[in-house]
Design a protein that fits this description.
With about 500 residues, the protein is mostly helical. Helix content is about 70%, strand content about 0%. Strand 1 and strand 2 (about 205) form a beta hairpin. It starts with a helix and ends in a 23-residue tail after the last helix.
Length: about 500
Amino acid sequence: MNLLWRERLLSMLAAALAVWLAFSIADGAVMLPLAAGTLALGVIFVRVTRMPIDAVAIGLLLIGYIVGNRGFAQLMPIPGFPLLPAEGGLAIAAVCMAWRCARDKMAPWRNDALNYALLAWMIVGTARFAFDFPRYGFVAMRDYVTIYYVAFFFVAQHLSLDEDVRRFLVRCLLIASACLPFAYAAFQVFPDFFHNTLTVRGIPLIYFKGDLAPAFLAIGGIILFLATPSRHRGWARVLATAMIVWVFTGDNRASMLGTVVALGFLAASRFRNIAFVQAAIVGLALMLLIGMAGILDHPWATRKVRGVAERAMSVVDVSGRFSYSYEEGSIKSDNNQFRWVWWRTVVAETMDENPALGLGFGYDLARGFLQEYNPDLAEEFTARSPHNILVTALGRMGLVGFAIFAWILVLLVVRTWRVLRNPVSDATQVALWTALWPIAISAHLGVVLEGPMGAVVFWSVLGLANSYDSSSKPESPWDKSVRPCSNRP
């Protein structure tokens, strides 16, 4: 077709589409126009960045889940159709990866223990799901996300074999990390704006899940501190330090414990000065609080010091039997008892009914727990996961699933240690492996890897980290300018 007539035809089609979308907006139907606008922006983004569309999809998901959190996770382009951002992005990336692997005659996984362990996790989980789906239907599919979200690991790992894509995904993580503290602070100061104004069909575009936002602050702080290019390092490290201090002054114990583990890993690496600086700043902040409470008898400082002390005490109060003078401490104690009873109940029920292969996807793991803990909560209780990924693995997939996921965790510890102790590992590689641990620890004290907010970020970052070749020094994501991606489909 003549180039001029092709442009005219495309212009007429675009004009007709614009008129139709305008009428849709006038009628109050905004989801299809929003989807069309998102698609147009995605095409523009692909052309500007010269990245493959699946890399753009993963990058936007990372930014969306870190900054938008639960609000972004609940967006549905088509009302009533359960196509959420994670599933839409994964579908695009899976199709592109399958086509690219078929074209290049290569497998979508690498020949290492971590890849094979995750493949085993997906194969066993899918086999178990195949038996559970006819019985439980969509409920089983909802629980099965714990398994199929692992596909983000293979997608991110495969994409990141291209240096340009790896740089792009690291930049997406840096952008999300820099935006997160400002979005989180604004969400706390102006909640009505985010709940009622910044919405799409009544769903907040940004809505933070209380236990994940601090974990993302810790992840963002580590990535900003280590992976920011030298020309931006000054302000980035100040912001990163503030984010990590924010984690320790907050209420979420899992994020604090995860941050301590991450800093402990850093203390064993050649970047140990960063861990010592962060520990010194947090210690200084606590000393100032103690001084204000003890010398000035400041009420706010006194409450804060007591709260921090009782939160630290509640971490080891597994059965919830300690006595607390501070209301928040007693709440944490109740949470410990809540988890302990649920874990014990799921373990006992699994061992009694099917210790090898578990109770399956779709089975109500909360039923026995509620009967023992508080039967009156049965009608209002909606949580399906026992706030611990290992207990979830045992309950859904039995000792087989528990053993596989425990092996995955062992491999994560080993790989993190090796990368941090390897003198040829650069700062970005160290940042990625270290940043996994706030989520990994939180996953054992909350519902994290059973949903998209934590799972998409965790598995994508793990795939990005594992894409580095450990036998040679990885190239810094900031050494070269962006050039066309050779990995485009």
